[in-house]
Amino acid sequence: MPGDVVTMDKIVSLCKRRGFIFPASEIYGGIANTYDYGHYGVLLKQNVVGEWWRSMIQDRDDVVALDSAIIQHPKTWEASGHLAGFTDPLVDCRTCKQRFRADHLAELECGRRPSKHPGEDAQCDLTDPRDFNLMFETSIGPVKEGGTTVFLRPETAQGIFLDFKQVLQFARRKPPFGIAQVGKSFRNEITARNFIFRTLEFEQMEMEFFVPPDQARHWYEHWMAERLDWYTRLGIDAVGLRLRAHDAVELSHYSSATSDVEYRFPFGWSELEGIANRGDFDLRQHAQHSGEKLEFVDPQGGERYVPHVIEPAAGVGRSLLAFMCDAYDEDELGGERRTVLRLHPALAPVKVAVLPLLRKDGHPELAREVYASLRRHVKAEYDDGGAIGRRYRRQDEIGTPFAVTVDHQSLEDRTVTLRDRDTLAQERVAIDGLARVLQERLAVQ
Ligand code: GAP
């Protein structure tokens, strides 16, 4: 099983080596918990987000899309409870001058003696825990002084609640229906650990599903099953996934029930996504703070109620990391160790690589022609740099499901070899039917 060989060090190094993901601002020494996505990282991320949209919008007809602003009216965060309660307990060490999450001390390293946890060494001098708000503050207006203090959104969800009335009207919906949104959120996380698992800025894929109050339990169950299924459909082995219900202490202020989809990362079971029954908390809070009625009124029967909300809230980076960890594998090929990302074809950044066997004798010309015809149908890449074995290895590490090689025979009979990343089987296929063969294989996997 791929999970046997994967470690975080291997994932981080593969991401850097192949330009998927690397530390941001590296020429200035980097910036904590902040990463940039390179070419293949962008393509993989787009595919993760694309599959999420597909599951929300294309595969069903009760969810509509939204893209709300990152900076909302500051009252938003008063109403949502984030201003008062979106905090982490932090402690400072007066000796090493570092700051730690008070609830993570047992997993963190002492600032002076990394073999110990903060507070364990005789020299450690920790303050009492204090609550720090995780929201980033900025101001709008021509000058900082006298400007209005605003916040970068810590979750995309609130924009959805603010627009509930608009969508109800313009999308002509009635509960049960959902509003889905993908976008960046920002949190002042101070714990640097586990690569992109917890970052200062991150993309969320959130959907608020508005339901008649007596249907809340049913839809909570529905979305838990649906979301778990999404990960397995896209290739994650079910043994590495579980649903974990929050106990009363863990529940957020808005939630009456929450379950996390957890993945068994190399560093242990951790949250990929939360599915929460938010009840009518958010709509009531925003109604109270804005003075607007945020309710559903049935135009036929006149029935009126504040819908309850079921929210599946996933992180793009965390999902991507889980897909990569689960796809990571090593095997032996011709006496050499091969690293391969066995990504689901829908997620693979590149679907097919086109490789001329030689950089002469007409191979590049025909390979370019094949590449030009394939790229109209699938995401293809042309690669003529280095020995053929190295080019295969490179595509295996990127997770490209198929490689097409143009050789001497191709010039004679217009066939190419088609290599399968996982089985390593090679077969000859006519150039004329190649796009169709590829599309069929990519669709069924
Ligand atoms: N609207 C509900 C909400 O935001 P959350 O559990 O705080 O709930 C949802 O966040 C998801 O967003 C998490 O399951 C995780 O995948 C992702 N996420 C949250 N904070 C993150 C961070 N600092 N870095 C990366 N992903 C994060």
SSE layout and pairing:
Elements: H1 8-17, E1 21-23, E2 35-37, H2 39-58, E3 63-65, H3 75-80, H4 82-85, E4 87-92, E5 99-101, E6 130-133, E7 137-140, E8 148-151, H5 157-162, H6 164-170, E9 177-186, E10 201-211, H7 216-233, E11 241-245, E12 257-265, E13 268-279, H8 281-290, E14 296-297, E15 304-305, E16 308-315, H9 316-327, E17 328-333, E18 336-341, E19 352-356, H10 363-374, E20 380-382, H11 388-398, E21 402-406, H12 408-413, E22 415-420, E23 426-430, H13 434-444
Parallel strand pairs: 3-9, 19-20, 19-21
Antiparallel strand pairs: 1-2, 4-5, 4-6, 7-8, 9-10, 10-16, 11-12, 12-13, 13-16, 14-15, 17-18, 21-22, 22-23
Helix pairs in contact: 2-9
This protein binds glycyl-adenosine-5'-phosphate.
